[in-house]
Structures are given as structure tokens and as C-alpha cells.
Design goal:
InterPro entries: DUF6442. Keywords: Membrane, Transmembrane, Transmembrane helix. The chain has helices spanning about 5-15, 20-50, 65-90, 90-110; strands at about 55-60, 60-65. It is mostly helical and about 110 residues long. It has one domain.
């Protein structure tokens, strides 16, 4: 093979993008998600411990900040594990998703009933 054939073949193999670059972008996205999730969790725990507090008004309904933060934590964790189950087909992620779904349902009940 000459140089032109090698370059042509390389371009054909990489027309959808460089795999290494895709992996790095995915890793960066996962890291940013993890930092955001940890930050929201820490804030929710601080509300639970009474370190911080507040309320949020949505459509003339008042919700405690703690309830909103736990809702976000449960929802994002549920979506994460459902996505992992969908793509990796491992049943442990479905079990984790069921756990987070129970937490989300409990959170919604707590927000609207109590």
C-alpha cells in the first residue's frame, strides 16, 4: 500500500469521528454529571440536617427546597440506572432503578400529601 491508499482507508474508518475523542467526551460528560449529582446530594443532606433551608413556589404550590433536591437526586439516579440497563443489559441496573423509583415515588407522595 502506498501513502495515499493508507490515508484514504484511514479516512473511511474514521468518518464518524475518532473513537478516542468520543470516549474522552463521554468521560467528561460522566464526570460533570457526577459532580452535579454530588453537589445536589450534599445540598439536600444539608437541608435535612437543618444547615440550610428554603422553599420553592411552582404554579402557586409551595415546596420545601429539601423535597425538590431529593426529587432531583432520585430522578437523575433513576434515569442513570435505566439507561445503563438499556445499553448494558445487566439486571443489577434494573434492580437499582427499581430502588430509585421507589425513592422517587416516596418523594412525590411526601411532596403532595404531607
Amino acid at each position: 500500500m502506498n501513502k495515499e491508499e493508507i490515508l484514504k482507508r484511514s479516512r473511511e474508518e474514521n468518518y464518524k469521528g475518532d473513537e478516542f475523542e468520543k470516549i474522552k467526551k463521554e468521560s467528561a460528560l460522566n464526570n460533570s454529571y457526577l459532580v452535579a449529582d454530588i453537589s445536589v446530594s450534599i445540598l439536600a443532606i444539608s437541608c435535612y440536617l437543618g444547615i440550610s433551608s428554603g422553599s420553592v413556589i411552582i404554579n402557586n404550590m409551595r415546596f420545601e427546597l429539601e423535597e425538590i433536591l431529593w426529587f432531583i437526586v432520585f430522578l437523575t439516579s433513576l434515569v442513570e440506572h435505566l439507561s445503563k440497563y438499556k445499553y448494558l443489559k445487566k439486571k443489577k441496573y434494573l434492580v437499582y432503578a427499581a430502588f430509585w423509583l421507589c425513592g422517587l415515588i416516596t418523594c412525590v407522595i411526601n411532596m403532595f400529601i404531607f
